[in-house]
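Good day; I would like, with your permission, to put a structural problem before you. A protein sequence and the structure tokens that stand for its backbone fold form the material at issue. The record follows directly beneath this note:
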Amino acid sequence: MSDVSLLTGLAQDHDQIAVERLISEMRSGRPVLVVQDQQILLAMAVETLSEDMARRLSALSNEASLLLPAARLRRLGLDREASGRIALPKIDLARIETLSLRLDAKIDAPVMSITAIERACLDLAALALVLPAVLVLPVPSDHVVCQTLLKAPMDAISHYRRNRASALTLISRAPVPLENAATEFVVFRGGEGLRDQVAILIGKPDLSKPVPVRLHSACLTGDLFGSLKCDCGDQLRGTVSYMAEQGGGILLYLDQEGRGNGLSNKIRAYDLQSRGFDTYEADEILGFDLDQRRFDFAANMLHQLGVTQIKLLTNNPEKIAALMRSGLNVVAHERVIGHPTAENVHYMTSKRDRAGHLIDVDAMHVRLKTIE
């Protein structure tokens, strides 16, 4: 390896490490710096902004702004398809919380288009799985905070997801007997935020033929506690049983809680659902579009396991399209429906109507009446 290529690789690694540190800092409630050439922005997640921090940041600059995604701006009454910036004459915590989260809030000031570096600040919030609302303010390059706060280049943040998708590493594997199936758990590390992703090899799948595959996003409430609000737990256990009966298959258990929004935001959305909003309306109130998940790293897991052709078990057409784009041969796809409950039929209807999921809700209603 040449000295030039070695130095290039080390610089790229340094930038990736810098982004990962900023993700941790933002989740921990500390401000970070995003850099583009000579421009430096301090970024702070709104959900962890305190009165004390607001006072300290006010002393730093009088040019603060609030960055909000398009979904939240629509809930504030604007017809927007792009994120925006609201100037803050002062860092008023109550106003910021209202614009970012309050249910009945309306826009109260002009909204400007965001720049590339500001978009990177919102991208960082998404990677950190915090509420997608960010306070930013410019910082002079010679200010003392530039020597104390962690920073990362704008481009490294913008390209982080793509770069990490191709950087999965197989960490460990072992047989794990389940109640109805012999399985092997294979742990990969990577994807977004260096979280662990798990491939469960059920039975002895024949890799020379189309392999039954399911991409299952983690759902703490449904998978572990049997929540009646969704059918995730039923899908998970039903898939394992189905694959065992078919002689083998692969279930990818992906750390993408709440359609990629993170557990805390999922519970925020549940609170809104308890007030009458459907799952997608709740997410939009919080600032999220229909689905933040990506499945390119899931395709990488399958490639590393030697899988080239699959029969995908899913109701989500985006999963089918994503794996086909990755170069996998999706020879067939089948539906996966759990048990209907009075609490989850509305949820399933929303998935069909808002996100195009391939779900026969009418049949679910008939089945629910039979159960009742």
In short: DSSP finds 16 helices and 14 strands in the chain. The chain has two domains: 3-158, 166-256+293-371. Residues 258 and 267 are 9 Å apart (CA to CA).
